[in-house]
Amino acid sequence: MNPAEVEERIRTLIEPFNKKGVAVEPATTFAGDLEFDSLTVMDFVAAIEDEFDIIISMNQQAEIDTYGQLVSAVHKLQDS
Amino acid sequence: MSETILKSAEAASAPERVDLLAKFDPIIQTREALLAAGVEDPFSLVMDEVLSPTQAICNGRDTILLGTYNYMGMTFDPDVIAAGQAAMQDFGAGTTGSRVLNGTFRDHRDVETALREFYAMDHAMVFSTGYQANLGIISTLAGKGDYIILDIDSHASIWDGCAMGSAEVVPFKHNDVEALEKRLKRVPEGAGKLVVLEGVYSMMGDVAPLKEMVRVCKENGATVLVDEAHSMGFIGEHGRGVAEEQGVLDDVDFIIGTFSKSVGTVGGFCVSNHPKFEVLRLVCRPYVFTAALPPAVMASSATSIRKLMHGGNKRAHLWENSRTLHGGLKALGFQLGTDTPQSAIIAVIMPDLEKGAMMWEALLKEGLYVNLARPPATPAGMTLLRCSLCAEHTAEQVQTILGMFERAGKAIGII
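^ inputs. structure came back:
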């Protein structure tokens, strides 16, 4: 899957979690802009993991602050 | 004069000191607002006198204890006290040393023997607290490149054990067997897998589906650790915990437990049949780099553990208490953490922190102590009044407790 395809799938997955309808851009942050709390993060990460059949450990999550970082991390993970 | 100028110039160029405690300002404010509302401080209660496992003088009032995890009421058992007194007389007040240096006395060995007997397992290792047992075992078992897969509602000591180690940490949804299985299957080939579960989850008092979870772990080649802190002594035919109750104890690789609940003292432990278990005494830092428990605590614990092996009648009475309180609170209209009584913990869900604190205080004034539990310790940001029953609570006391809940609940407007 190329980065654009990964991005398109994540964009669909994020919709039900984006309760305030924030415009999602590469620099959008999960904690700040999207106001994700820890439970939302868990459910959202689980949705992505199931979609791409990958594991995003908490150690890896700690390196991901923005939407753009998530897309590139998932792209790398599903490639390996 | 020139000196003064020099000093003030230096002062001007020095960077401003950042107050490292400023990040806790929101917590200070929440607490102040709570106290300003006139509520008795839930987090600085003093037990002036402890009369029995179920009664104390708290903040000057005669109080029934319903939040002490003293499940089997062993704190005042005459044999437990006598063993501790004798050990203190013969071995002194403390060990002043690590278990691996000068801190292993006769009774440290004896309490490990008692644990091996209790669980019918080959190895036992005693830590200074239950917190350190999880911290030490988890951080030592799972190293760099290994994966720890754990329930999202795990106790703080489990999370801290994960944070202290260097393994990859992967949480799954609470008690969700399918979520656990999916994650196990996605772990890269060749990596070590440690699954960390609890028998009873202490916030809601619910039990884990260990039978299915342990099976899934074994099918996927994972090592399984179960924390039975809140079930030891009470759940299972021999009081060995939820893993015993569900018939999977033989498939659990490591059991973690504590002496500060059913055993009635303080300390933590790990028991296991792993043939290389004893090496952990040399490599587990929270075991090595701390002082061993006092001999009195060890002697009391060993006596208590051996008595718990024959505690069938007390276990039956504790179940009666749990069922009566659960059914009674439900009938009064309180919202509870579980539909059925699953353990000796019954969590009463409060609408919010303010109402929870008011209800907690109203109960205290009625003469009842329960735990006020709030985020981040609780799941889903809930405020809970957590009740833990004791085998020494009489049937009359449980009825008295229900009356207190009814009056307080109506006064605060929760029921």
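The CA atoms of residues 10 and 46 of chain A lie 12 Å apart. Chain A has one domain: 3-79.
thumbs up if we can close this ticket
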